[in-house]
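#onboarding

Welcome to the new folks! Below is a worked example of what a typical request in this channel looks like: someone posts a single protein sequence, and someone else replies with the predicted structure as tokens. Don't worry about understanding the tokens yet, we'll cover that in week two.

Example request:
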Amino acid sequence: MELFSDLHQLSNLTSLYIQGCKRIESFSDLELSNLTRLKIEGCESIESFPNLQLPNLTELEILHCKNMKAFGDLQLPNLIRWMIYNCENLGSFPDLQLSNLTMLKDMFILKCPMIDASLPQWGNQNFPASLVELTLCSEPDVSDFSQLSHLFPSSLTTLYIVRFDNLESISTGLQHLTFLQHLTISFCPEVNDLPETLLPSLLSLRILYGCPKLKERCEGRGSHYWPRISHIPCIEIQD
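Example response:
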């Protein structure tokens, strides 16, 4: 494509957004050493994410790449934020490379069902100690967070739990998150408890939409959890 021949001349490029390119096969040979932000959206031709050596990249977003199945070798030593959204066939995740992302702070994996299926096999040793924010979404086979306790690095300060349809309990599995300050739970209709060991240190607790059982146990002075959560500076409970 002519686009790529032009990019070869843009060695000082710092931000790149590629959308809807149906014939892209690889761009790993481009000279993009100064790139700090890369967003790839709706590129159906990508089946294997290419090997990337981008020493200055801080943000990587991969959205709606429905045919992408795997990642190549990622050399991204300064990556801070990583989002993967709606990549339905992505089944191979470079979890063994996570420990090399020593600057990674925010990680979002949403609507990637084949990755979700492999989540319980991951080990916490693969997460860098720098990770402070994590969003987990749509894991249908989990009913108790003790099944995923090995996933969460103890460095987390912010955790989002979203669309766990069968999740009932989060009272266990999070005890080691001694730095956690912000906990958000949404669209988890069966959840009916909270991790009591973490409540004293929380700065914010948000129960947002689709959590009727937990809402009932937390809302109002007469509720079950109110004596234990009333000290939290920011409490948000929505229907």
